[in-house]
RNA polymerase sigma-70 factor, ECF subfamily (Allosphingosinicella indica), 203 residues
Amino acid sequence: MSGESPPDTPSADGPRPAGEDADAARAALAEALRRVADGDRSALKLVYDRTAPKLYGICLRILTDRGDAEEALQDAFLKIWRNAGSFDPKRASPITWLATVTRNRAVDRFRARRPVNTRPIDAASEIAATDAPADAVIERDQEVAELIACLKQLEEKDEALIRAAFLQGSTYSELAERGGIPLGTVKSRVRRALAKLRGCLTP
């Protein structure tokens, strides 16, 4: 990547810790981001080593090209280096925040090279399935008007489900509990609704 780049970042195949308690790993990652915000380069390397494979996977799903995905990942870590101070552990988990930053950089790169299409919607469904806050996976930009028009073509219950999942911040688990239906049913309904949206959004 040309221009400024985050310091001391290894390849996207960096190792991840094994056998670490999930809560401890989350706390360690949050602390590392706090140190990154203070300008600690070793903390950025720690964040990279622990999360690069997952974040690279997000880039690759959106961009499909490995070279572009690697560039997007580097862009994302430059953004993380500059903006780690905006991470708020009360609003999102560390990996959710990192995934959102990464996805946004990948989507920016995707839009720069192609006309509007539906790949960001495809990636959004996969990220939402990880139970991350779903409002982090659809950008509110020039595509929103087109998306809303297509939402109106869905059945009322499907439109409500997609809006709750991707525009109002509900996770799949929350939707299942709220509706009193199995989690698998929620996921199936969302997949079917997203398939209809893709058909509507495809030029």
